[in-house]
Amino acid sequence: xxxxxxxxxxxxxxxxxxxxxxxxxxxxxxxxxxxxxxxxxxxxxxxxxxxxxxxxxxxxxxxxxxxxxxxxxxxxxxxxxxxxxxxxxxxxxxxxxxxxxxxxxxxxxxxxxxxxxxxxxxxxxxxxxxxxxxxxxxxxxxxxxxxxxxxxxxxxxxxxxxxxxxxxxxxxxxxxxxxxxxxxxxxxxxxxxxxxxxxxxxxxxxxxxxxxxxxxxxxxxxxxxxxxxxxxxxxxxxxxxxxxxxxxxxxxxxxxxxxxxxxxxxxxxxxxxxxxxxxxxxxxxxxxxxxxxxxxxxxxxxxxxxxxxxxxxxxxxxxxxxxxxxxxxxxxxxxxxxxxxxxxxxxxx
Length: 349
Prior knowledge:
mainly alpha, about 75% helix
């Protein structure tokens, strides 16, 4: 899920902060895409993937001896049925590990699977987040922090100085509301937050009222929110790095698949790769659905003043844990299905 939020640096300027956030999101996505191409296709004879492919070939040659010993044993005791089906594996290993310099068949298949997972993920995000609810929910929470960072210093002032401080803060944050309206339209939550700031500007609100708690939260809560939002960014990048790491280890799994064992390493490798993809899709589904609950519920109520700390905690900690649990269960199911299918195919050849 590609998104951006407003960085909490009012002194930089609202417009610059939005542009910086959008550019950072695009740059990160492009950087990951380029990294995948550099690893799996561009000059794959001399890069990291080429070295891993050579290591996979070494494993394949080393395990070929064990394979041949088992194959000869099957020839003697199994009436040729298992040996004939077993001969498929050496051809598969050689075919997948053949590297022409522009990428092996394995690297092309791996990149294709990754692109397929990303396509499905984008379709999920598009269908589940049609109204940009994920971005809205995050920006709704951070809008309170931005407004609060401007208004909070005024609390220590009194009289006319305080009024002037509120007026100046209100003028500064006007650009924030306009940027949000440009992105999401004239939403209720935007108008509600703007009205709260206007009430302070004209002295019609009381600083002790609970309706302004979200704007006047302490800096510790702001720091916690920033940390949790950074934590979910880190988790999404960790999933991408995990998929890239598993992709790089593919040649070793292929080379070790000639070992005469029931569970082929290639199945475990494929399961791990798909599990990382399931975790990525699961997180985006959880985030989009939970965001819709926030935006279609309290955000649409002009009298509500929701505390979104629970939402930030959920995205930063609980949603990653839940998506990993779902991915683990799904990966186990995939591994079991592949293993049973492999046994069925062998029994019919």
